[in-house]
């Protein structure tokens, strides 16, 4: 009834399902047609009037600071292989953003954390897999040993004035910039307009 947008991760046998794109109506199995609805191109069923609203995929992550340095993860798999990013990832079904954040940090860095507070929410469309909404937290390390795992090839703390230039994802670049501004001014960042 639908197709899944997938990408290879690592070897050719492992794929990551990153989104669903309906071709047929999930209610009556009629092929969907593209129409402009509410000023946007959407897929609609000509038989039962089902409208497919393609929604962003929720993700969560954190800014983890230690001794004035920010924790970053080097990406092992596409997109942006070899670029750095904040420890973050897509939420699983029946998982809260907080649970996702703690799980992703453990999987990617080997560290366990305590979430101190929410920081800000970002929306990004420069990930070719999907449009994502990133819920970002501030976190403290409570245990574990720093070690790349899961989809990370390297994990490292960077001084805020010596961050790598190749930061993946516009949302992560904005988050790091907002965090540095927050640290310098003491003022929490305003919501995006």
3D architecture notes:
This protein is an alpha+beta fold. The protein is built from two helices and twelve strands. The protein has helices spanning 97-109, 170-185; strands spanning 2-8, 15-22, 33-37, 40-44, 51-52, 57-66, 69-75, 84-85, 88-90, 111-124, 132-144, 152-159. Strands 6, 7, 8, 9, 10, 11 and 12 form a seven-stranded mixed beta sheet that branches. The protein has a three-stranded antiparallel beta sheet with strand order 3-4-5, with no helix packed on it. Strands 1-2 form a two-stranded antiparallel ribbon. The mean pLDDT is 90.
Structural class: alpha+beta
Q: Using DSSP, what is the number of strands?
A: 12
Low-pLDDT stretches are none
Provide a count of the helices: 2
Order of helices and strands: EEEEEEEEEHEEEH
Which outline best applies?
elongated
CATH architecture of the largest domain: Alpha-Beta Complex
The overall pLDDT, averaged over residues, is 90
Number of domains: 2
CATH-assigned fold name of the largest domain = Nucleoside Triphosphate Pyrophosphohydrolase
CATH superfamily of the largest domain: Nucleoside Triphosphate Pyrophosphohydrolase
Distance between the termini: 37 Å
Proportion of residues in helical segments? 10-25%
Q: Whole-number radius of gyration?
A: 19 Å
